[in-house]
């Protein structure tokens, strides 16, 4: 009995001693050193610079291979919102004006480029936002699809396959590519000319995304004049030449028709920089997904301004969405002022790349980490969200606080452990149900901002007039008959 009591006392003593000396977090915050984890090189550089507190800033000169670059002046807009409630919908006026033309005047298209990290992998969140917009305002297709994609196997909005012999350069790990990056942050080359080099696309079954609309190939400049592409559509095969004379070239693949599937086989196309195909409809709303695992948002500063302005001329984006944060968490200090400063530069750069386009910043989601054997909101989430809100306010962009929209502190635990679950057991990423909810929350805030815009422009009256056109016509005819009757009686 005495021996058992002694063992209990000793065990308790050891527990109290080690508990006092254990770290607060059971799991290390350091990123695992494995080839499967991708972190963009600019993020690592920015963190290292912050650690050594390097003073003085230099802005790298942009590659202006096409001569003069259009300089864009920021609009003189202001928001009277407080920091805690900041949404910045006033800074999305250009996007709302384009949406207004689509809805009220039945003209043109409103196009969105959605840049994100692993949160939007496999078209998560983005495909639902696309569906919501196209349901209400028209439009179809999944938009711009790159040559290859790390998430092609998990994407349901399009079946995307390709041969293994592609060479890819990404803005996540290459500063000076052989040729400028495309609009998705990558550039693709045929790796060898011995084996067939191909890519295929097949439309999925998600509503509004069941066809490949007017497939158009985009590619860059090369001295290669022998390159061709075979366009294979079921039993039909067309061979087209790749004229790579300018910094950005496009080739219509099907003569303007919409199809279900398409295979492209490239011949003698070595050294020609390839970017991807656009399969969007010419009207309504289009949302393109440019997700990159491990992206912090900083690599967007590597876009070639002259080439991006050419993409903008062709694709005509009216809204750029920046959805980052997952890969910026947990790097030592909770002081993210360096990230605010760097992303301010990114936004300024994007305004040169995509003239006139509005910009919306989406904050980090809640993320849970284990503290004292209990999952709770990571201590870095709120500081990062505030840093993102700060750069959105300073750079005059819209802001969607995903952390608060989820429910704030502890919400990721509820999303993971609730029934039905809305997030995965890594307590970081959403499942498809959660992604659909997040998309609905983003769409709701954007629709509220657009409703305010319409009200200020008198859009509500015009919308009612358009939607009830037949009823109004009958009413006007009835009123006119009554006026005519009264006039006749007065004359008599």
Q: Helices and strands: which structural class?
A: alpha+beta
Shape: globular
Q: Kindly estimate the percentage of residues that lie in beta strands according to DSSP.
A: 15-25%
- Strand tally: 20
The rounded Rg comes to: 27 Å
| Overall pLDDT | 84
Measured as a percent range, the helix fraction is 25-40%
Ranges where pLDDT stays below 50 over 5 or more residues in a row are: 14-38, 57-68, 70-74, 461-492
Spatial order of the strands in the main sheet? 15-1-16-17-20
Biggest sheet: strands, sense, closure? Answer: 5 strands, parallel
Number of helices: 12
N→C terminal distance: 122 Å
Protein model, in words:
- This protein has 492 residues and is α+β, with helices and mostly antiparallel strands.
- 34% of the residues lie in helices and 20% in strands.
- It has a five-stranded parallel β-sheet, with helices on both faces. A five-stranded antiparallel β-sheet has the order 3-6-13-9-10, with no helix packed on it.
- β9 and β10 form a beta hairpin.
- The N and C termini lie far apart (122 Å).
- The C terminus is likely disordered.
What's the gist of this structure?
By secondary structure, the chain is of the alpha+beta class. It contains twelve helices and 20 strands.
Sum up the structure in keywords.
492 residues; alpha+beta; 5-stranded parallel beta sheet; 5-stranded antiparallel beta sheet; 12 helices; globular; disordered C terminus
